[in-house]
Amino acid sequence: MIFEIARLSIDPARSNDFEAAVARAAPLFKSAEGCHGMALERVIETPGHYILRVTWATVDHHMVTFRNSDNFQQWRALAGPFFLEAPQVIHSAMTTYF
Predict the structure, then answer these.
(1) How large is the greatest C-alpha to C-alpha distance in the chain, in angstroms?
(2) Separation of alpha carbons 54 and 2, rounded Å
(3) Residue 50 · residue 43 · CB < 8 Å
(4) Cβ within 8 Å of residue 78, ≥6 positions away
């Protein structure tokens, strides 16, 4: 499993609408090949900043399969208008110690 971690920046005054748009987009991720879950985290210290975490089977499931799908286009149509800047995206693998 890998994690897509995207830092998102939006206008804090639009937070409720943004969170509703992400909730509407959740089924797009749920039905995506190789997707095992997603979560949106609101950064407490910086209003308007969020972390989107998506669990994928492989990086290719995110970068190739999902990015080239209609689901990705629908995700961007729902969430993209809120972005103040391009999302910063990294991928990570987790090692658990306890």
Answers:
(1) 40
(2) 8
(3) yes
(4) 21, 22, 24, 25
**Model confidence over 59-85: pLDDT tens digits?**
999 999 999 999 999 999 999 999 999
Alpha helices in the chain (DSSP H): 15-30, 59-60, 70-79
Give the separation between CA 49 and CA 29, rounded to whole angstroms: 21
Instruction: Give this prediction's pTM.
Output: 0.93
Contact predicate 83/10, CB 8 Å: yes
CA-CA distances (angstroms) from residue 20 to 38, 65, 75, 78? 15, 25, 12, 9
C-beta separation of 59 from 5 below 8 A: no
User: H or E element: which one contains 3?
Assistant: strand 2-9
Per-residue model confidence as pLDDT tens digits over 2-34: 999 999 999 999 999 999 999 999 999 999 999
Q: Give, for 68, the enclosing helix (H) or strand (E).
A: none
